[in-house]
Design brief:
Low-confidence stretches: 195-239, 301-308
Number of strands: 22
Number of helices: 8
Mean pLDDT: 80
Largest sheet: 8 strands, mixed
Shape: elongated
CATH superfamily of the largest domain: DNA ligase/mRNA capping enzyme
CATH class of the largest domain: Alpha Beta
Number of domains: 2
Distance between the termini: 57 Å
Length: 366
């Protein structure tokens, strides 16, 4: 069982805890550019893991922190590790529970075997952490009290990361944007993209279930095979022109709470149905979509980039305050062959028809 300490013992332990400055983290609701990787941070207790020597024993202290990063509690965590790690190694991260297993998600490294890593780049810290997990920390849980250490789910592509998050057996609290060659950190709250009800023409969709005319059916029950590329019998010239025409389409688009996440809808079996998430590859596309769907003052006036939020904005914690969730537009989109995604380019005419679902499978297979 994890050893708990009294206040006097905690004070004695903390007197030996190294003093260092935590990496500065900026919370944002705005678009983040040019990052190298995004970390999905679990919902749980923030803490330090300190590998050191206590009363002649090599131990791992788990030190809970509050929202000001002040240590509020200390206990000994059970885990298997190489003795040299106790020369003085400090991780920062989140403890959480998955199916009865105690887990520690390592978000940062501050000391390794007595050497400070506070001024090292993130890529240097990440490479060291991977080596530690591979050779110096056990990944086995001998009893239910043991702690399993690991790195957070990471991806350089936001949409791919969000899709993977949707399959996790634990909750995600934040997304952290990191740059390999600096210590810079941007963070935003995570909101599940598929958790909202989508509605068009009386058809409602929530978490993959469609409801219309009082009848429910699971999306995919009436899925057709679609148009297969092998069915296109034209010559290469005709086929290239055919593919070129298919690389432009009109979608219904709605926003999500998460920045730069937009839902694409198509027409299928006479109704409007969710198809995919839009591809937002650059600053210009992001600004275009923000102007249509979000209350981002920087889009209208670049001078406001250096201004801080006023008091009302700061105190309003409603995540929907920056997005118009009730808005939808028909938009012209272009297919990106490299990423197999549709990118919005401009508003379509209100009288134009939304693309049919049956027209889309061909283009993804090109």
């Amino acid at each position: 069982m994890n050893t708990m300490f009294q206040n006097g013992e905690i004070d004695s332990i903390l007197s030996d805890f190294p003093k260092f400055e935590l990496s500065y983290e900026t919370m944002t609701h705005k678009k983040v550019f040019d990052y190298n990787v995004i970390l999905a941070i679990p919902d749980g207790q923030k803490c330090f893991a300190w590998f050191t020597t206590y009363k002649e024993d090599n131990v791992c202290f788990i030190m809970d922190t509050d929202n000001r990063n002040q240590i509020t509690n200390v206990r000994i965590g059970l885990t298997g590790f190489k003795n040299k790690l106790a020369f003085g190694s400090i991780f920062y991260g989140t403890t959480f529970n998955v199916n009865g297993a105690n887990c520690f998600c390592i978000e940062d490294l501050y000391y390794y075997k007595g050497v400070s890593y506070s001024n090292k780049t993130f890529i240097s810290r990440l490479e060291t952490l991977k080596s530690i997990l591979k050779t110096e920390l056990s990944q086995k849980s001998i009893t239910q009290d043991y702690i399993i250490f690991g790195l957070p789910l990471m991806n350089s592509d936001l949409i791919s990361l969000l899709k993977t998050i949707d399959t996790l057996p634990y909750k995600i609290k934040n997304l952290k944007y990191r740059w390999y060659e600096t210590k810079k950190i941007m963070s935003s709250e995570y909101y599940k993209p598929s958790s909202r009800v989508r509605e068009f023409n009386g058809v409602r969709e929530f978490n993959g279930v469609r409801e219309f005319n009082g009848v429910r059916e699971s999306v995919g029950v009436r899925e057709s095979v679609g148009v297969r590329e092998s069915n296109v019998r034209e010559s290469n010239v005709v086929r290239k022109e055919y593919v070129k025409q298919l690389s432009y389409a009109i979608f219904h688009i709605t926003p999500d709470i998460q920045s730069d996440i937009y839902n694409l809808f198509v027409t299928k079996d006479g109704i409007t149905e969710f198809y995919d998430y839009a591809f937002i590859p650059d600053y210009e596309t992001s600004v275009l979509m923000n102007q249509l769907f979000r209350n981002i003052k920087e889009n209208a006036n670049l001078d406001t980039l250096e201004e801080s939020d006023d008091e009302d904005e700061f105190e309003n914690n409603n995540p929907e305050k920056y997005v118009y969730l009730d808005k939808s537009y028909k938009m012209n989109c272009q297919f990106n062959f490299k990423f197999k995604k549709w990118m919005p380019t401009s508003l379509a005419n209100a009288k134009d028809s939304v693309v049919l679902h049956s027209k889309l499978p061909v283009i993804k297979n090109v």
